[in-house]
């Protein structure tokens, strides 16, 4: 980070400075991610958190996404300025620094791309493998659980975005050196800013949906409905939301003509393993006796 920022300032590359500034967010993003995990674990058994601390990761991811968006705006602003006021670049020094930055980002992305992490939910450890490209959902037939940890995803996107920018920086510097096109350096910075802004938007969209208790998975809602609505039972109301990676909350209201306790429906829904908090209300439908039309 320091090498890119100082080197870019000394050797005249705005793309290199932009890459270094964006890399400077990594320390903050990774620290924020680590603090979120630590806080969630520390307060896992705190009863004041009604549904646990699972959303802390999404809050951290949302915050990181905002920082990404701000960095994208800053890079774009600086790049546009260099289009109108080109600066001479010392390529022999700037390019090796850019290559060094790319190698650091590749190593960081590799470290963040795998491994098991434990999340705590009201005192229960929940182990799962992070799948960075698959949305969280449950297979209603197999019970297989797929998760998305937006806290880890935010940190991963930070280093992945910077790796992409590093590639653009090297390309821009190489093109400017070979052909004398100084405008390729700010163009690389501008493209990098667009890439970062796009990833930031996706992260903001996904994390804000969880923070606002948007329906976690409409297809899962239909699976729950089909599971409940048997033998004349009717699902009158359903609220489904994500509590954190690997955990869902649900409030279900069932109208039935049978004498069934909530435990009956809880057992039917047991195959949905992510339903950590399940509230079930059962209302018996009023049956009106048929009126006789016979006349004496």
Give the SSE map:
Layout: H1 2-11, H2 14-42, H3 56-84, H4 91-112, E1 116-121, E2 124-129, E3 137-138, E4 145-146, H5 150-179, H6 184-211, H7 218-228, E5 234-244, E6 247-256, H8 262-268, E7 275-284
Parallel strand pairs: 6-7
Antiparallel strand pairs: 1-2, 3-4, 5-6
Helix pairs in contact: 1-2, 1-4, 2-3, 2-5, 2-6, 3-5, 3-6, 4-5, 5-6
Describe this structure in words.
The protein has about 300 residues and is an alpha+beta fold. The protein has 2 domains: about 1-210, Alpha-lytic protease prodomain-like (Up-down Bundle), CATH 1.20.1510; about 220-285, Alpha-Beta Plaits, CATH 3.30.70. Helix content is about 55%, strand content about 15%. The chain has 8 helices and 7 strands. The chain has helices at about 1-10, 15-40, 55-85, 90-110, 150-180, 185-210, 220-230, 260-270, and strands spanning about 115-120, 125-130, 135-140, 145, 235-245, 245-255, 275-285. It has a 3-stranded mixed beta sheet. A two-stranded antiparallel ribbon has the order 1-2. A hairpin with a 6-residue loop joins strand 3 (about 135-140) and strand 4 (about 145). Helix 2 (about 15-40) packs parallel to helix 6 (about 185-210) and helix 3 (about 55-85) runs parallel beside helix 5. About 40% of the residues are buried. Residues about 115-145 and about 290-295 have low confidence and may be disordered.
